[in-house]
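Q: Here's a chain of 400 amino acids. Please give me its 3D structure as tokens.
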Amino acid sequence: MANTKTKFSAIGGNSPGYLLLVTVLGLLSLGGFWSAYMMFLHGHYMTGMTNAIPWGFPIVMAVYLIGLSAGSLVLSALSSVFGRTEFKPLARISALLAALLLIGALMAIILDWGRPDRILVPFFSMNPRSMFSLNGMLYSTYIGICFVYLWAMFNDREKLVKLLGYTAVFWAVLVHSGTGAIFGFVGARELYHSPLLPPSFIAAALSSGTALMIMVLYATFKLTGRKLDDELIRRLGFYLTAFIAVVAYFIFIENVTRSYWPGNYAVQKFLLLFGNKYSLIFWIGMIGCGLLFPFIILANPATGKSVKWILFASALVVTGVLAERYIIVIPGQVMPMDMFPGYHITGPFQDGQLTGYCISPMEILFGLGITSFVFFLYALGLKFFAMMPDKAVIATGEKE
């Protein structure tokens, strides 16, 4: 196959456009670190979080970035695991971004702790019944697999690349299953507790990771002046369509199941009909942007083969999955826990009441800064390492 002889190189990184991009990303990253420092110094009262809502937008971003990472890593393994050799030129970029996205996710979690100095505690206090404890091991091992996988690709160790590709896919499934289990295993929260959350998280990771890679690959090749075959984008768009359909199935089954049980009528009415902004985010952001509109675009022959429409649909999916992560994390805390069924709970800390949460400017800066830092490192990686193929085209024998 022609793709096996693809030459990789680093980009020059000396153009005014590249320097401007790196500068902007660096400044936004500094803004994110400054916001983290201010929250560490003064406490979370500077955010929209309260004692009733301890998981705010930083945790939304962490879960979101973990999903993007898992989806990107699976895309990197398309050639080594699933035999799709036309995607081999894209494997290095995907693996690099997968590792950086998870690093960004862990930074979001650690900087939100309030005690980042205790980062090693989970590794010395292993609790097999705690998903937080297990995920610490999964995440750290995942990053190691990504970098060893990259090393094998750099050194043309084909057998090792294939073995690590299988390992990477398996571990990506474990990582996002574990992330979904953090919420799905919480029986005290009606909007969290669900055995479908782990596989649902995996499906959303595949859709959002594929959508992100479509946009990143297009922009990277365009800005570096290298050829990217439009047919590769169309094939990724086909995969994205299938992933969206799987996500829609899980979301439908989960909400129908929850609505069927009388004990969940109140929380489902709140989420789907009377939750004000949460209901709007659910229907417009999660369902509209994340599922319905991009599926219509990609499934329509008139738009599904257009690169520009595929890029637009990808942007909708990336936005919609962020809305989905918000819907998973926040409304489950807004609804009060029914700790004593049949009794009405009152107290000075909004016990037994609906609580409110609004993302603060400090949290927005934090999330923007973490994301910018990921792409800052990505831009530097392209400059200092041989990540970019000279071209990414489908050979004559690979065309369908």
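Q: Can you summarize the key feature?
A: The domain at 2-398 is CATH 1.20.1630.10 (Formate dehydrogenase/DMSO reductase fold).
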